[in-house]
Structures are given as C-alpha cells and as structure tokens.
Amino acid sequence: MKAKTKVAALISGRGSNMEALVRAAQDPACPFEIALVLANKADAGGLATAEAAGIEALCVPSKPFGKDREAHERAVDAALRERGVEVIALAGYMRILTPFLVDAWEGRMLNIHPSLLPKYPGLDTHARAIAAGDTEAGCTVHLVTAGVDEGPILGQARVAIEAGDDDHALAARVLKEEHRLYPAVLAEFVRGL
Length: 193
Description:
Layout: E1 5-11, H1 16-25, E2 32-39, H2 45-52, E3 56-59, H3 69-82, E4 87-90, H4 99-104, E5 109-113, H5 125-131, E6 136-143, E7 153-160, H6 167-191
Parallel strand pairs: 1-2, 1-4, 2-3, 4-5
Antiparallel strand pairs: 5-6, 6-7
Helix pairs in contact: 1-6, 5-6
C-alpha cells in the first residue's frame, strides 16, 4: 500500500478547515496525513488543536519579517521541506503569497475559498453574494496560482441563499460544506499524484 501523502495545513486562526482535514486523515483509508500544522501567528487557536491531535504545530511568525513577505515565505518553505511535506493545504491562511512560495509549490498547493469562484474572489464573499441578489453561494477548492483565488478549480459545493440570510448565517452554512468538500477534494487530488 502506498504511503500516505504528507500534507501541511497552513493556518492563521482557529483552523476549522484544518480540523476537518485532521478528522478525515484519521480514517485508515484516507490517502493523506496532516504531517504539520503551520501558523504565521503564535496565538492561532488551531496550533493547540493540532498539538492535542498529536500533530506537530509550528509557528513561523510573519511579524518579525516586517514587509519582507518573501523572506518569511523562505522560512516557511524551509520548515516544510525539512519535514518532507509533499502538499500544502491552505486552511484559513490569511496571507497573500508572493511568487516565491507559489512557484516553489506549483501544482501542490490547494486553497479553499468561501465563494463559487470565479465569483467573489478576495474578502466579504457572503455579503457580496447577498448584495448581488444571488440565489446560491458556496465554496471552492482550487490550486493556488499567482492571481488571488484564480487557480484551476478542483471542486465546489453549493448552498442556497435563503430569504432573510445575513452574511453570518450564510457563512455558517457554507462553512459546513467547506468541512465536507475540502477533505474529499484533497483526497482525490493526492490519489492523482
């Protein structure tokens, strides 16, 4: 049987999508393992969650690097390579990446975004979908490329926008779909490597 693909989950906060990936990886049939959870903020709640699950939790703080985002990414990249990471899953990693990291992990870095891309890249996706009068919203797993939220789409899940929805209610329903979609798409992706 092929060894499980070593995945690093990159987070900036509580890491609920990382938790969904960790849960999925506990199934013996899952083709990936979460080998590392890496955060750019020491107070990211997901670090404690990873430690509690027996996963290495590492902070490579971005603040000391100031505006030199590439220098920070070089430190992140070194940590990933030292641990034999094969695929990166961005899971609430709130940093716009430089060409250095995007190019270094081309074709091996996934992200989940809370909209039906190509609609609503960037922030405030739920409020924008409601304001536009859309009847559905959702989430997208895509490969990371140089353009923000522009990479090839690997999978999507749709959620109806209900009468009276505000961005918080819609976000909560979309998040449930994110937790279902991301592990499924990541598993399918690593099986194809």
